[in-house]
């Protein structure tokens, strides 16, 4: 499978890192980006071919991954429109951009899958929500799944509107986890642990708790109650969080992320 990336930034790098080790034999990765330095780094690290503009390798690709910022998508679609003669699968990972708008910008093209991955793809621990346009056949749907499954799990959606909630949960989600870890590490430092101790304790706790939930399948509120001894330390911590409205703030923040996804789609879809 020949995969071309348009945009070689943060998310593309995570996907390329995960895919690079998986594509053997006839497979190849090609990256288009205006930044020479970023291209050199990607070529050196992952052995990809590169170009600073859409070229024949893009036209010859089986899958074209659109990994530019949402605001850059219209311009990229204009450049790409005349290069889709081989009927490749167009796989967009942009937040907000709706399939109907991308299809229109590509001159009515319908072989489009919209996906929302996340950066743990870099270590093949990603999860991607995906939805296919009606013009996508079974083989291309499988190809899209193969690309994203190379870097983690996939979840197929039957309605495109659900991509915004997916963006709010897992697309942006790693940032919430890092934010929580920042707070845990700050607290550890303020209470006298050194930076490395705080980092190890916080990270292992996050990984361990997530794995415990995944492996036991027990509901997370039950797992939380098992940590919370009556009149003990966890009870003091959770009481403090509840008083500060932490849970409500997280729910509101995630709804803001989904709303921003919808808003981006509406704003940029006017073009
Ligand atoms: N980061 C994340 O965790 C996730 C991001 N996404 C989505 O992925 C997309 C990319 O995000 P991210 O990687 O963070 O963004 P980045 O800004 O890191 O990457 C985008 C890259 O595309 C380049 N670019 C701009 N115009 C063109 C063009 N015409 N042709 C080729 N390349 C171009 C940019 O160059 P320059 O900087 O010079 O403009 C930049 O290097 C976004 O649409 C985002 O919504 C989805 C899931 C998660
Ligand atoms: O912040 C963003 O808009 C992108 C989409 C999901 C994660 N990063």
TrEMBL record:
Pathway: Amino-acid biosynthesis; L-proline biosynthesis; L-proline from L-glutamate 5-semialdehyde: step 1/1
Coiled coil keyword on record: no
Highest taxon of source: Bacteria
GO molecular function: pyrroline-5-carboxylate reductase activity
Disulfide bond in keyword set: no
Ranges that cross the membrane: none
One Pfam family recorded for the sequence: P5CR_dimer
EC number: 1.5.1.2
Leading EC class: oxidoreductase
Principal location class: cytoplasm
Keywords associated with the record: Amino-acid biosynthesis, Cytoplasm, NADP, Oxidoreductase, Proline biosynthesis
Recorded catalytic activity of this chain's protein: L-proline + NADP(+) = (S)-1-pyrroline-5-carboxylate + NADPH + 2 H(+); L-proline + NAD(+) = (S)-1-pyrroline-5-carboxylate + NADH + 2 H(+)
Domain (Pyrroline-5-carboxylate reductase catalytic N-terminal): residue spans on this chain: 2-96
Localization, UniProt: Cytoplasm
PANTHER family: PYRROLINE-5-CARBOXYLATE REDUCTASE, PYRROLINE-5-CARBOXYLATE REDUCTASE 3
Role: Catalyzes the reduction of 1-pyrroline-5-carboxylate (PCA) to L-proline.
Protein family membership: Belongs to the pyrroline-5-carboxylate reductase family.
Protein name, per record: Pyrroline-5-carboxylate reductase
Gene this protein is translated from: proC
